[in-house]
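Kindly inspect what follows.
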Amino acid sequence: MSAANPWVRKLLGQENASTIEWTEARICEAWEAFLAKTGLTPSQAMGKHRMARLPRHIVNEAQRIYRPAREKGLLKELRGGRKLSRWSKRARFAAPAHAPARQ
């Protein structure tokens, strides 16, 4: 059995491990295909609350695409320039740049 065998990866708990040689073009294609298929980006699918509700194979696929995108520094580009969700805790509690200082 080879290390690329999906049964071996499943037994080792590495179902989301990818054996694909990722290029920037391949990452972009996979990201867009995942978005079209699920209606979510891989990073959205990996959110704490969504991971609990999504089927495991979808989460595994999201992780498989997200990891090389992060390693190659493509996340900002793939997210359309957005870095934070405006509803994230960090964004909600950050003071706007134009807000007056508290006294």
